[in-house]
Design goal:
Radius of gyration: 26 Å
Number of strands: 4
Helix content: under 10%
Structural class: mainly beta
Distance between the termini: 52 Å
Length: 79
């Protein structure tokens, strides 16, 4: 990583590089980590919390079956 800096005034400038992320003031997210999309909106209450793992959005079920018109019928989200 390269930082190029140019100053126009001769004044002290202090820089510190280190770990600047802290979760100490945030509670752990306690909601679901695995979800299946629905036809209604869903909200994950993650604001001001920290996650301990990735959230997995599962696929919507999809399959095709033959129909009486010699075609295919797609079934989305059903059984």
């Amino acid at each position: 990583m390269v930082f190029k800096v140019r100053f126009t005034q001769d004044k002290p400038f202090h820089v510190c590089f280190g770990q600047g992320i802290s979760f100490a003031n945030y509670p752990e997210y306690e909601g679901e980590y695995e979800l299946t999309p629905k036809v209604t909106p869903q909200t994950l209450n993650t604001r001001d919390t920290y996650l301990t793992q990735d959230i997995l959005f599962r696929e919507i079920q999809y399959y095709e079956v033959s129909n009486n018109q010699n075609g295919m019928t797609a079934v989305i989200g059903g059984t």
